[in-house]
Design goal:
The protein has 235 residues and is α/β, with parallel strands linked by helices. The chain has two domains: 163 residues, Rossmann fold (3-Layer(aba) Sandwich); 49 residues. The protein contains ten helices and seven strands. It has a seven-stranded mixed sheet with strand order 3-2-1-4-5-7-6, with helices on both faces. The two termini are 20 Å apart. It comes from Sulfobacillus harzensis. One of its GO terms (molecular function) is methyltransferase activity. This is Methyltransferase domain-containing protein. Keywords: Methyltransferase, Transferase. It holds the Pfam family Methyltransf_23.
Length: 235
C-alpha cells in the first residue's frame, strides 16, 4: 500500500442511493458542463479498440454505458455497481450486476476486453490491490481504463482547489443536496471534496499501474486538466 492510502472507506451506499435520481444532471453542473465530453472521449477511445465485451465497474446510472450502446450494439456490455438505486436507471437492454467491486472481481468467472473505472478507484480501501486483482477480469489483450479527478498543474490548480474543496461542499449543502438526511461527513459533496483531498494521486497512477503488473500505460488527457484518464494492458 502506498503511504498516502487512507486505509479505510466509508460505506457510501446510502450516499449513492440518495444521488441516483440526480447524479447525471448534477455531475454535469458540478463539472461546468464538461462531463458529457469526458464520457464522449472515453467512448471514442473504447470504440478504437473494437472490443467484444466491456464491463463498466461502478457504472452508476449507466450514463456511459448508454453512450457506448449507441454505436457498439455488437459488444457485450455489463454494468456493475453496489447501489441498487443507481442500477435502476441503467437502460433495460444493458445487463447489470448488483455487487461491490471486490466481490465482483472474486466471484465473476468472465473476462472482458475493456474494464472501465470512472471516479471509482479513489474510494477503494486499497487501490493497489484492486488494480492488481482486476487483471483477473481482463482478457490477455484487454484494456483497463481509469478516469479520476486531478488537481491540475500550474495556476489552474489553485482555482480547482478553491472550487472543489471549499466552494463545492458549501454549494452542495445549500443548493444541490440540502435534503440529504444522513451524517454530515457523508453528505454527497462534502464526501466528494474529502475523497479528492485524500486522493491527490492521479499523477502517480501510472507508477501504481506499473507496480500492479500492467504495461502499455498511456495518458489520454493533459496535466492541466481537472480529470486524468489512463489506459493500460495486463502484464
Amino acid at each position: 500500500m502506498h503511504p498516502d492510502d487512507h486505509g479505510h472507506r466509508q460505506d457510501l451506499r446510502a450516499t449513492f442511493d440518495f444521488m441516483a435520481d440526480r447524479y447525471v444532471d448534477q455531475t454535469i453542473r458540478v463539472s461546468r458542463g464538461d462531463y458529457p465530453g469526458w464520457m464522449d472521449d472515453i467512448t471514442a477511445l473504447v470504440q478504437s479498440w473494437a472490443p467484444e465485451s466491456v464491463a463498466d465497474v461502478g457504472c452508476g446510472p449507466g450514463y456511459l454505458l448508454e453512450r457506448l450502446s449507441r454505436t457498439m450494439d455488437h459488444a457485450d456490455l455489463v454494468g456493475v455497481d453496489y447501489s441498487a438505486a443507481m442500477l435502476q436507471h441503467v437502460p433495460e437492454h444493458i445487463p447489470t450486476l448488483h455487487q461491490p467491486l471486490e466481490e465482483w472481481i472474486e466471484s465473476s468467472d468472465k473476462t472482458y476486453d475493456v474494464v472501465l473505472l470512472t471516479f471509482v478507484l479513489r474510494d477503494q480501501p486499497n487501490p493497489d490491490a484492486i488494480l492488481s486483482q482486476l487483471q483477473k477480469r481482463l482478457t490477455g489483450s484487454g484494456h483497463l481504463l481509469v478516469l479520476e479527478t486531478h488537481t491540475p498543474i500550474g495556476w489552474r490548480g489553485w482555482g480547482f482547489h478553491l472550487y472543489f474543496e471549499h466552494w463545492l461542499p458549501f454549494w452542495g449543502q445549500r443548493r444541490l443536496a440540502p435534503d440529504w438526511p444522513g451524517a454530515r461527513e457523508q453528505a454527497p459533496y462534502r464526501w466528494l471534496a474529502d475523497s479528492h483531498r485524500r486522493w491527490r494521486r492521479a499523477p502517480a497512477l501510472p507508477d501504481r499501474m506499473r507496480d500492479a503488473g500492467y504495461g502499455n500505460i498511456e495518458r489520454h488527457r493533459p496535466e492541466t486538466d481537472v480529470v486524468m484518464l489512463w489506459s493500460a494492458t495486463p502484464g
